[in-house]
Amino acid sequence: MRKIILSIVGVLLIVLAVFLAKKIVDSKKSFKPKAQKVVKTVFTEVVKNGAVPIVVPANGNLTAKRRVELYAEVQGVFRKGNKLFKEGQIYDQGETIIRIDASEYAASVQSAKSNLYNQLTSIMPDLRLDYPDIFPKWETYLNGFDMAKSTPELPELTTEKEKFFITGRGILTSYYNVKNLEQRLSKYRIPAPFKGVLTEALVTEGTLIRGGQKLGEFINTDVYELEVAISKTYSDLLKIGEKVTLTNLDKTKMYTGKVARINGRVDQASQTIKAFIEVRDNTLREGMYLEANLDAKEEQDAIEIDRNLLLENNKIFVVRDTVLDVIDVNPVYFTDKKVVIKEVPDGTTIMAKPLVGAYTGMAVKVFEDKSANIKG
Description:
The protein is α+β, with helices and mostly antiparallel strands. It has four domains: 42-53 and 299-375, conserved putative lor/sdh protein from methanococcus maripaludis s2 fold, CATH 2.40.420; 56-63 and 222-297, Beta Barrel (Elongation Factor Tu (Ef-tu), domain 3), CATH 2.40.30; 66-101 and 188-219, CATH 2.40.50.100; 104-186, no CATH class. The protein has five helices and 23 strands. It has helices at 2-27, 103-130, 135-143, 160-168, 171-186, and strands spanning 40-42, 44-48, 50-64, 67-71, 76-79, 90-91, 96-100, 189-191, 196-201, 208-209, 214-219, 224-231, 243-248, 254-262, 272-279, 289-306, 315-320, 323-328, 330-334, 338-342, 349-351, 364-366, 373-375. The protein has a six-stranded antiparallel β-barrel. It has a four-stranded antiparallel beta sheet with strand order 4-11-9-6, with no helix packed on it. α2 runs antiparallel to α5. The longest helix is centred in the first third of the chain and has 28 residues, at 103-130. The termini are far apart. It comes from Costertonia aggregata. Residues 67-215 form the Multidrug resistance protein MdtA-like barrel-sandwich hybrid domain. This is HlyD family efflux transporter periplasmic adaptor subunit. One of its GO terms (cellular component) is efflux pump complex. InterPro entries: MdtA-like_BSH.
């Protein structure tokens, strides 16, 4: 009997515990937090179409417009001059850059000139007797013949008899032989073709120079050229004489140049055309890296925006009554940071800065900026 009573009591206690637990659970209120809707703020601009200048960037290294590579045409020992043949040496126009020892060759030239003079002297008696009408001009020529100077040009042969007589005595042959030797003698001295500076020196005084050997490079420092490659799309828009703004690599100084030449051939590999920009400045040096901005044309009824605002290459976000939407646009020119687009109606409010997670239909709050207008 006792066991039955204890069993009944145990069951009652279990039922009571379950009942009390249910009451406690039911009496506990659950509070669910209410989700707050977050509205992101966007920066916007109002479109006003206009003329957008298309500026084509280009870059390259400066080269001297006038440069001469110095080569020896004769052989001999490089003799010391008034100035050392060193890089950076400045020479005036006509000043001797290189002088090669020509004493031996000069003696052979003088020998040939002496032979010509003797021939002329030997024909003078015959000219006096047989051709008295042409004798005076040949006498004048002989009197003006100076062995220390360049051989003067022969008198003009006016008649057939005179031509036959002079040619038959070997005068013309000797004369042109002397002129040929004198021409070669002049190659033992290399003068400066213009005022400039020596940028490369490959020999020194006392060196034995051989024919065909490169001696150095000489440039004019007044005018430089910048060779740039331009897309063929804008090749027909560039004009010779057009002004170009140039900047150095550090963007600390600006120069003004002009388009001097435009190549008439398109590079088949890159589909670009070479243009040459002429620039003058005392601070420039050959080999300097410069960046150029070429004004190709103006695109009408267009605007310029950041390139990262363009979606799928032909769409942009617009704001309609605090809701994002997309519209189709027509991009006409790209740079690394900007893009010029068309077919955006005036007065359209567009997104001015990228928004992370933006999508069509997204509710946004427009940042109030009184100066937020984008113009072409």
